[in-house]
Design brief:
Layout: H1 4-10, H2 16-22, E1 31-32, E2 38-39, H3 47-52, E3 54-60, H4 70-83, E4 88-92, H5 97-101, E5 109-110, E6 113-116, H6 118-122, H7 128-150, E7 157-160, E8 164-166, E9 176-178, E10 189-191, E11 193-195, H8 200-207, H9 211-219, E12 222-226, E13 231-233, H10 234-237, H11 240-247, E14 254-258, E15 263-266, H12 281-290, E16 293-297, H13 302-317, E17 323-328, H14 330-336, H15 349-368, E18 373-378, H16 385-397, E19 401-405, H17 407-410, H18 416-428, H19 444-456, E20 460-463, H20 465-477, E21 484-487, E22 507-516, E23 521-526, E24 545-547, E25 550-552
Parallel strand pairs: 3-16, 3-17, 4-15, 4-16, 8-11, 17-18, 18-19, 20-22, 21-23
Antiparallel strand pairs: 1-2, 2-14, 5-6, 6-14, 7-12, 9-10, 12-13, 14-15, 22-23, 24-25
Helix pairs in contact: 4-18, 7-8, 7-11, 9-11, 14-15
């Protein structure tokens, strides 16, 4: 089969004005970035149409190094729905340059189920990530300057919580010292870099309801504590307006298309293992304004992306999916069943059976939110029919819908079975209000315990001394009502990346807490999770090149 980028190059793209016309968005409202990309103003969101739209969340079993293909399923489902004459729109996150040039490669779908132009989407796109990086680091520079310019007046910071960001995987920047050298170089202090998808600015952009809400959230960003124990925020420097200027264009969702010219909104890109893992509220609501069926996804497995989608995004945006699609593969299930990575492409019914425990746990978790769930089996070329039918029978016994997706190879035609199941299930199952895992008024400790026990299956939560110190600060600031966002490995229900399947008899250790007063989340750092990834021994950058004017190596 041809590579993703070869398939993308062969697809005939429609002018973005034609894609917008399919949604009845007038050309006059578009801010075009070339022929095939445009920004759409959020003022076009219609609350009544949002209420009438069928939102579908795509999530997955616990991911493995074999891959799951969640984005391919999300795009494929949109293609399949349009094949059966439903007005469908897909709403996804933007890829980060870090994984694109690191381990993962591109993140625009795969095969014949991609969002296009994939090279632009995977690279600089409309500059949203650059704007977020600039806005974040502008705050860093302004904070350092404020400390430097006011030090003679007795101003000093007891603790600085704000670091820097860069959309590159660079382990050498995790911990740094700034302001070395002459006194005119600034005040010497420790700092460090996170990757841009971990920036609070990214979370703020993705949760903001409008430009006014964006400004309010930026003003409330907690930068640290002054020497006289007072919280110091962006609004104390009087620069929130300048930061909003840098984010003015980035706030508007991006409109592109799929391999079959289906409209797609691609906007925002927080990671789900270190942030809340969903595309922007504005893009989702804009898609719901124009699509009868809107497909979106939560990053990594359902214990991360879906949980945060429900408990954070839906709670704050006042939206809820009509249905959740849980993606699984034979290879992923076999890994969770104890089969070695080198052998997962070979038939192994016993390993598959054991791996179904992971699937069942995710199904139970999704249903605990009051969601109807269907299982999508993402087919790979090496899959045996016997194994697929075994999984189908297992889901039937559980009363859960099951469909095979083959959109990677066949495009929309390969997702018709899934599309028909999704429509039938939504029509036969009236949507119910979401059951959140915890209440707003629960303490942080109670929220963490409920989440760990109900979703992860842990026995208890243990807070380190550093985390307990932040709990006291949270109580002092009166922000304990914020939802929690657990940063942990994506490879396990636990914080141990090697604990596959459904771990038992474990604790969740909270090493530290990051208080995001702008995005209004309390980030709990569980285990050895890195907010600035490193590059692998053989990064994808070694395979990315320009050959005869064409980009190669993005996949």
């Amino acid at each position: 089969m041809k590579s993703d980028i070869e398939i993308a190059r062969e697809c005939k793209l429609a002018p973005i004005t034609e894609i917008a016309a399919k949604l009845n968005i007038p050309e006059s409202e578009l801010e075009q970035y070339g022929k095939y990309v445009a920004k759409v103003p959020e003022k076009l969101i219609d609350d009544e149409k949002v209420k009438q739209s069928n939102l579908i969340l795509v999530t997955a079993i616990t991911p493995t190094k074999a891959g799951i293909g969640k984005t391919t399923v999300s795009i494929g489902l949109a293609l399949g729905l349009n094949k059966i004459n439903k007005k469908a729109v897909v709403a996804l996150r933007e890829p980060s340059l870090g994984p694109c040039f690191g381990m993962k490669g591109g993140a625009a779908g795969g095969g014949y189920a991609q969002v296009l132009p994939m090279d632009k989407i995977n690279l600089h796109f409309t500059g949203d990530f650059h704007a977020i990086t600039s806005a974040h680091n502008m705050i860093s520079a302004l904070l350092d300057n404020y400390i430097y310019q006011h030090k003679d007046e007795g101003f000093a910071m007891k603790e600085i919580l704000w670091k820097r960001v860069l959309d590159v995987n660079d382990r050498n920047l995790r911990y740094i010292v700034t302001g070395l050298g002459a006194k005119t170089n600034g005040v010497t202090m420790e700092s460090g870099f996170d990757i841009t998808p971990a920036s609070e600015i990214m979370a703020i952009l993705c949760l903001a309801q409008d430009e006014q809400d964006l400004r309010r959230r930026i003003e409330n960003i907690l930068l640290g504590t002054t020497i006289d124990n007072k919280p110091f925020r962006v609004k104390d420097m009087g620069v929130a307006g300048a930061i909003c200027v840098l984010l003015k264009d980035a706030l508007h969702p991006n409109l592109v298309q799929t391999t079959e010219n289906t409209p797609a909104f691609v906007h925002g890109g927080p990671f789900a293992n270190i942030a809340h893992g969903c595309n922007s509220v504005l893009a989702t609501r804009l898609a719901m304004t124009y699509g009868d069926y809107v497909i979106t996804e939560g990053g990594f497995g359902a214990d991360l992306g879906a949980e945060k989608f429900y408990n954070i995004k839906c709670r704050k945006a006042g939206i809820a999916p009509k249905l959740t699609v849980l993606v699984a593969t034979t290879q992923g299930l076999k890994m969770h069943g104890g089969v070695d990575l080198a052998l997962i492409k070979e038939p192994n019914m016993e390993g598959l059976k054991k791996g179904l425990d992971n699937l069942d746990k995710h199904i139970a978790n999704i249903q605990s939110f009051g969601q109807t769930v269907v299982v999508c089996f993402n087919r790979y070329a090496t899959d045996a029919d016997e194994e697929i039918e075994f999984c189908r029978a297992h889901c039937a016994e559980m009363g859960v819908g099951f469909a095979v997706n083959n959109a990677f190879v066949e495009g929309g035609a390969g997702a018709v079975e899934l599309a028909e199941l999704v429509v039938k299930t939504i029509e036969e199952n009236p949507s119910a209000p979401l059951n959140f895992t915890y209440d707003d008024n629960d303490s942080v400790e109670v929220k963490a315990t409920k989440l760990a026990q109900k979703i992860y299956g842990a026995d208890k939560v243990i807070f380190s001394a550093a985390a307990k110190k932040m709990l006291a600060k949270i109580e002092e600031l009166g922000v304990g009502h914020y939802p929690i966002c657990v940063a942990k490995t994506q490879y396990s229900f636990s914080a141990d990346a090697k604990a596959y399947g459904v771990p038992k008899n474990f604790s969740i250790n909270i090493k530290d807490i990051v208080l995001n007063c702008g995005s209004e989340m309390i980030v709990l750092i569980a285990g050895e999770i890195m907010r600035m990834p490193g590059l692998p021994k053989s990064p994808q950058a070694e395979r990315i090149d320009i050959v005869n004017g064409e980009i190669e190596g993005l996949s």
